[in-house]
């Protein structure tokens, strides 16, 4: 059984002040705590996901606006942007470890909001380890 270790470090230049991160790998989901009053949040939170199919699985990391009332940001309801990382890109690395990396957030796709800067996300898709049962 394979496990993917991920550390959500921080984000920069977000267009909102209250945000959190959702992570999804296959059917497994998790999220960070909500950080308020900053457009440059620092989470430093670690997550572990079970990898069912390393060749086809994809880690989807989304940053969302947290507000008591829904707000339209960049054309999408509360979704600021996301990053998609194929699990096999981590598995193919030497020692199956990627360094901390700044990813540009991909904005929600609408005709009205094309090529808008949504901020950056610093992730550490740490490693893939094989766990024997």
TrEMBL record:
C2 domain ranges (all copies): 1-103
Domain of life, per lineage? Eukaryota
Q: Which SUPFAM superfamilies match?
A: C2 domain (Calcium/lipid-binding domain, CaLB)
One Pfam family of this chain: C2
What's the protein name?
Answer: C2 domain-containing protein
Q: Which organism is it from?
A: Acacia crassicarpa
């Amino acid at each position: 059984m394979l496990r993917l270790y991920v550390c959500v470090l921080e984000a920069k230049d977000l267009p909102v002040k209250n945000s959190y991160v959702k992570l999804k790998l296959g059917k497994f989901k998790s999220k960070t705590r909500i950080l308020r009053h900053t457009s440059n949040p620092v989470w430093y939170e670690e997550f572990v996901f079970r990898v069912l199919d390393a060749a086809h699985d994809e880690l989807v990391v989304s940053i969302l606006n947290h507000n008591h009332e829904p707000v339209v940001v960049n054309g999408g309801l509360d979704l600021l942007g996301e990053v998609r990382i194929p699990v096999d890109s981590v598995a193919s690395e030497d020692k199956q470890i990627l360094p901390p990396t700044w990813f540009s957030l991909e904005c929600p796709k609408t005709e009205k909001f094309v090529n808008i800067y949504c901020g950056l996300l610093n992730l550490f898709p740490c490693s893939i380890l094989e766990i024997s049962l």
